[in-house]
Write a structure and sequence with these properties.
The protein is mainly α. It is 72% helix and 3% strand. Strands 1-2 form a two-stranded antiparallel sheet. It starts with 17 loop residues before the first helix and ends with a helix. 3% of the residues are buried.
Length: 127
């Protein structure tokens, strides 16, 4: 009785090429994007429930600050790589002319910066 040859599984297949490593890293950053959503929901619940002081004490702990800084970096990476993929997923044609990828990416990134600045204005303005 013979068995078919099965080559050993390479568990680090994604680190062999930059494209695959960035893809896997981008997928892993989804965990930090999810944490950011949970954190915002915790904040909204604290505002609604009147426990904002307790939430502020939790958010001021060094380990929580470190997690949120890491989550911010991961979310920015996730956003940039997502916006850079848009021209591959969407083909825009105007009168038969295909809009170049750099224009779609530039529009996406410009909109992201403009919306971020608008949110920052409302959050950081003095009362």
């Amino acid at each position: 009785m013979t068995t078919a040859y099965r080559p050993p599984r390479d568990n680090l297949w994604f680190v062999r090429t930059r494209h695959c490593a960035v893809f896997v890293l981008r997928e892993l950053t989804s965990v930090f994007v999810a944490w950011s959503i949970v954190f915002v929901l915790m904040f909204a619940d604290a505002v609604r429930g009147g426990t904002l002081q307790e939430f502020a004490a939790l958010a001021a702990r060094p380990w929580m600050i470190a997690i949120n800084v890491l989550a911010l970096a991961a979310t920015v990476f996730h956003t940039i790589t997502f916006l850079n993929l848009a021209p591959k997923a969407t083909v825009v044609r105007l009168d038969g002319w295909r809009v170049p990828a750099w224009m779609i990416q530039g529009g996406n990134h410009s909109a992201w910066v403009a919306i971020s600045l608008l949110i920052a204005y409302f959050v950081l303005r003095s009362p």
